[in-house]
Amino acid sequence: MSTPSTLANSPYESELQTALQAVHAASLLTKSVLRSLKNNVGAETKDDDSPVTIADFAAQALLICALHAVYPEDRFLGEESADALRQNEALADRVWNLVLRAKERACARQDGKSDVQMPRDDAEVLMRGFPASKEEMFERIDAGGKGQVTGQGRVWVMDPVDGTATFMQGQQYAVALCLLVDGVQQVGVVGCPNLAFDVHGPLGEIRVHEDQVDEVGYGVVLSAVNGHGTYVRSMQENQLGEPRRIDLTSIPTKALSDLNFVEATIGKTSLCQTEHKLVADSLGASWPGTIVWSQQMKYAALTLGATDVMVRIPKTKERFTYIWDHAGGHILYQEAGGLIKDFDGQAVDFSKGRQIKGNTNHGMIAAMPGVFDAVDKAVQDVLARRAT
Question: What residues have CB less than 8 Å from 255, skipping those under 6 apart?
Fold first, then answer.
């Protein structure tokens, strides 16, 4: 895997390469679960024994094991803890078997067999960190699920399957990973295993859609290091493609009426989508332009120039969102040239633990600098109507 020259002197080059390897391996694991389901994907909920639950646990174990093998002093924060596995032996066995299959693929890759879907460098990292028992697997998963602190030291924040409902439909989902150092994003890697996207195509001319699925390949992975730009690579069966830098500032600024707003599936209850529409209406833009369920996929779509604006207007200040839905995606878009701020004009604070709460970060706006102020004014006008 080559390293772009702009990253050659980065203090986080090693972390980036390890994160890319870990996300690639976890992406292959989750995609293998989807493909094993074939025509049986149809559940819309994350039941305790559903395939997405099994993929979620196994991918989190894989991510933490790979990272812990290289950075044993680092801490982790993820959505899942192993409590459910300890209480459900059958579920634990299914997750353990999936992890063992990943280990077998890594072993076979090291032996030079051709039918293994695992890059050699991924295999070397993973072989050093694979759990030796189910209990050790539980401990690795708990290292993320029990994590609380994000504002001090080095903390890896992860979402092994962001977009569980659409994962179960065989649509878009993301494998997200971010290194925080004293609460600041330094490395972000987001795998999009189902995204059919031409990494050599023109930015701004390709749309992201739930059903625009890479049926035969493994999608793409985006990565960024603080101060060193954002890159996209194809994810192949046995390797990652060459990196392409994404510079959204090279795309001409759009007229406000041409802006494409990205939205979750209509009806998501935590956000006031009627007010989202009012923001677009005030700018003369159609709404919604792009509909994607996964929050990390929204950031991927913004970063790839496939959409232009994201607003998140919570129904009340008491509403909160989880850090793993945003860490990683933010740095991708920002390093590509975009802006993300809360309604007070501040950067989103990732140092407060598992939740991003309205009393410190009320709402979010993501847009390019050339249109950000206009979008921000439209949001403020809509918010002002609440008081009248």
Answer: none
Would residue 56 show up in a list of annotated catalytic residues for this protein?
yes
Residue 366: both structure tokens together: 């993501």
Buried/exposed code over 318-338 (b: 16+ C-beta within 10 A; e: otherwise):
ebbbbbbbbbbbbbbbbbbbb
Provide the sign of the torsion angle of the four alpha carbons 82, 83, 84, 89, taken in this order. positive
The pLDDT, as a whole number, for residue 45 is 43
Contact criterion met (CB below 8 Å) for 175 and 105: no
The set of residues, in sequence order, having a beta carbon less than 8 Å from that of 81 and lying 6+ positions away, is 141, 142, 144, 145, 146
**Structure-block tokens of residue 148:** 């609380």
Rg (CA), the chain: 20
**Residue 316 appears among annotated catalytic residues:** no
Q: Which is the catalytic residue, given 30, 53, 56, 325?
A: 56
Question: How many alpha carbons fall within 13 Å on the CB side of residue 105?
Answer: 22
The candidate with the shortest Cα–Cα distance to 358, out of 329, 308, 315, is: 315
Q: Which residues contact residue 277 at a Cβ distance below 8 angstroms, ignoring those fewer than 6 apart?
A: 287, 288
Contact assessment for residue 9 and residue 180, using Cβ atoms and an 8 Å cutoff = no
Bond from prior residue into 11 cis (ω within 30 degrees of 0): no
- In sign, the C-alpha dihedral spanning 384, 385, 387, 388 is positive
- Residue of 18, 150, 164, 321 with catalytic role: 164
pTM over 0.70: yes
Mean pLDDT of all residues belonging to the chain: 87
Cβ atoms within 10 Å of 44's Cβ, excluding its own: 11
Q: Interior CA angle at 53 toward 48 and 57, to 5°?
A: 120
Could you give the 3-state DSSP secondary structure of residue 204?
Answer: coil
CA dist 69 and 314 (Å) reads 39
The whole-number pLDDT of residue 1 equals: 40
Q: Are 181 and 214 in contact (CB under 8 A)?
A: no
